[in-house]
Design brief:
Chain lengths: ~350, ~350
C-alpha cells in the first residue's frame, strides 16, 4: 500500500458562512456571517434558496478576501440535491473553472482536500470550495415533504440550512495551515436506517481516524481538538466507544459539528445537525477563527458523508459512508510531524 | 486571470470497458471488453446493474494492468444516479481511498484530470477513474419509466449502458501521455429541453475549446483528432458551426463519442449516445488503443456534461453544462507545445 497520509502545504485564507433561521438561533448563531429569517433567501423554491446560499457564500468569501473571481483558479463544489444542482446553478454566475463533487456531507472537506492538494502541487495559486444543504430541500428529497408532518425518531438528525465557502491559497498566503490530508475509504456496516445516519457514518470515521493515528504515530493527545462533521449524538457516541476500544481514546477533545450547531435541549433536533452545510459553516465560522487566533493550535477535521439515495434504500441496500480527514494548524504552530 | 491550461505529466496505463447489448451491437461493439446481452449483469434492479458494471470495469482494468487494489492510491468516480449511488455501491468492495465526483457526462474526463494532476503533483503514484451510465436507470430517473413507452423527439439522445475504468500512472509508466488539461466553466445558454442535451452542452464545449486554442496558440490542424463526449448529432452540428464562425474550424477532424458508439441508421437512437458511460467506454476501448498504437499521435478529448436535474427543469430553469478538456499523446510523440 502506498503511504496514505498526503502532505499538504496550503492555507485557508478566508471563509464565509450563510445559514437559516434555526442555525442563527442556535448556540453558534452569532458566529455566522449571513442569515435569512425566512430560509428562502428571496427565492420561490427551497432548491433555488439553496443555490442562492452558495452564491452568497462564495461572494462573501471573495469580498472578505479582497479577491475578484478571476483571482481564483478553480472551484470545488457539491451538495446533497439530486445531480448536485445546488452547486451547478448557485455558482453559474462565477466565471471560474468548476470541479463538481459528490461526497454527501463530507463535501466541504473533500473540496478543501482537493483544492489544497492541487495548490501544493503548483497547479493553482488559489482555489475555492463551496458546499451547502437546506433542511427543506433535503426533507422533501430524502424523507417526506414538510407538509406531511412525519414523526422523527430520536436518532434522526436535522439537516442544516447553510452554505460555507472557503478560499484556499498557497503557503505564502496568510491563513490557517492545511498540513496533511487522509482521504476516506467507502465503508458500509449494514446500517440501513436513513433516520440513523450517525450510526452509518461512524464506522467510516473510525476507519479514517485509526488509519491516521497509526500511520502518523500520533494520538488524540497530539491535537487540541478533533472535529467530526455530522455524526450527531448517536454517531459520536459510537465513534468514541470504538476509538477507546481500539486503544485510541478521543473522549477528551472530540467535538462534532452536528452537536455544536444546535442546542439539544431547546431546539428539538433529536440527534443533532447534519448535511453538507453543517461541517461547512461550523468550520468556516467557528473552528477556523479559533485556529487563526491560536486558541487552537492543531486540529483534525473529519468530514463524514452518508452516500445512499432514497432509491438505494428502497432496494434494500445499506448506507455506504465515507470520512475524509484534514489536519489544520495555527499559522505560528510548528509542524510536529516533521 | 491565472493561466488556465494545466501542464500534466502522467500516463493512462490501462483501461477497461463494460457495456450493454445495444452498445455491443453498435459499430464499436467488438472493441469493448465485456458485455451482457441482458443489460442486467445478474442483478435484480437497473441501479444495481449499473453498480455492478463499475465493479467489473475496475476489476478488469486492474487485472489487465497486473495490479492489486492496494497498488492504487485513490479512485475518482461518479455517475448520473441520484447521490451517485452507481459509484458508491459499485466500488464499495475496493479498499481504495475514494473521491466522489459529479460532473454528469463529463465525469470520466473530470476524473482523469484530477487523477493525473494529483499524480503530476507527486501526491499519488497511481490512481483509478471510473464512471458509468445505464439506459434503463437513466430513463426512469430523468424521463419516464420504460413501461410508459414515451415517444422520443429527433434531438433526444440514447443513454449508453456502459462503464469505463482507467488506471493512471506517473510519467515513468508505459501508456498514453496526458500532457495538459483545461477544466470547464459552467455555461448555461437558455436551453431547457431535456430531450436536446446536445444543444445545451455545445456552448460549454465551444467555450472550453476556444479558451484552449487561444491560450495554447494552436488550432484543430495541430491535432490528429478532437473528440467530444456526447454532443450527439445535434450538439456536434452546433459546435462545428460556432467553431467555424469563431475562426477555429474543426470540421476536418472532429468526432463525437455519442455519434461513434451507435449506428444512426439501424439503431434508432435519434441524435446519438450520451451518459457518463458514453465517453468513458469509447475513450477506454476505441480512442486510447488508437493513440497507443500511434495511429493517432495527438488528440484532444472533451468530456461534456449537462448538470440539470428533473426538479430543476420542472422549476423552470435551463440546463447548465460543462466541458472538461484533456490533451493526450502517443508515448513516442514529441510535445509540440514546449
Amino acid at each position: 500500500m502506498e503511504q496514505q497520509i498526503l502532505k499538504i502545504n496550503a492555507k485557508i485564507v478566508c471563509a464565509a458562512s450563510v445559514v437559516g433561521h434555526k442555525e442563527h438561533e442556535g448556540p453558534l448563531g452569532s458566529y455566522f456571517d449571513i442569515y435569512d429569517q425566512t430560509d428562502k433567501f428571496k427565492q420561490k423554491t427551497w432548491e433555488k434558496a439553496e443555490s442562492e446560499m452558495q452564491r452568497v457564500a462564495l461572494s462573501a468569501a471573495l469580498t472578505k478576501a479582497g479577491l475578484e473571481e478571476n483571482d481564483v483558479g478553480a472551484m470545488f463544489a457539491g451538495d446533497l440535491l439530486n445531480q448536485c444542482v445546488g452547486s451547478a446553478y448557485g455558482l453559474l454566475n462565477f466565471d471560474i473553472p468548476y470541479f463538481g463533487l459528490y461526497g454527501a456531507c463530507s463535501t466541504a472537506v473533500e473540496g478543501l482536500m482537493l483544492a489544497s492538494l492541487l495548490i501544493t502541487g503548483g497547479h493553482f495559486k488559489r482555489c475555492a470550495t463551496i458546499s451547502s444543504s437546506h433542511f427543506c430541500s433535503a426533507e422533501q428529497q430524502y424523507r417526506t415533504p414538510l407538509e406531511y408532518g412525519g414523526q422523527r425518531p430520536p436518532t434522526a438528525q436535522w439537516t442544516v440550512t447553510g452554505s460555507g465557502a472557503f478560499i484556499v491559497g498557497d503557503s505564502k498566503a496568510v491563513g490557517v495551515k492545511i498540513c496533511a490530508a487522509l482521504p476516506g475509504i467507502v465503508i458500509e456496516k449494514g446500517v440501513n436506517d436513513a433516520s440513523n445516519m450517525g450510526a452509518a457514518m461512524a464506522p467510516a470515521a473510525i476507519d479514517t481516524l485509526l488509519r491516521f493515528f497509526k500511520e502518523s504515530k500520533t494520538s488524540a493527545a497530539d491535537y487540541d481538538a478533533i472535529y467530526t462533521g455530522d455524526l450527531g449524538a448517536e454517531g459520536s457516541k459510537i465513534l468514541k466507544e470504538f476509538m477507546e476500544a481500539d486503544g485510541y481514546p478521543i473522549n477528551e477533545n472530540h467535538f462534532d459539528c452536528g452537536n455544536l450547531i444546535f442546542d439539544p435541549e431547546y431546539q428539538d433536533v433529536h440527534s443533532g445537525g447534519s448535511g453538507c452545510g453543517c461541517s461547512a459553516v461550523v468550520l468556516a465560522s467557528y473552528i477556523l477563527p479559533k485556529i487563526r487566533s491560536g486558541e487552537i493550535k492543531k486540529a483534525l477535521v473529519i468530514g463524514t458523508g452518508a452516500m445512499m439515495s432514497p432509491s438505494s434504500l428502497k432496494q434494500g441496500l445499506a448506507i455506504p459512508a465515507i470520512a475524509h480527514l484534514i489536519m489544520l494548524e495555527h499559522e505560528g504552530a510548528e509542524d510536529g510531524n516533521k
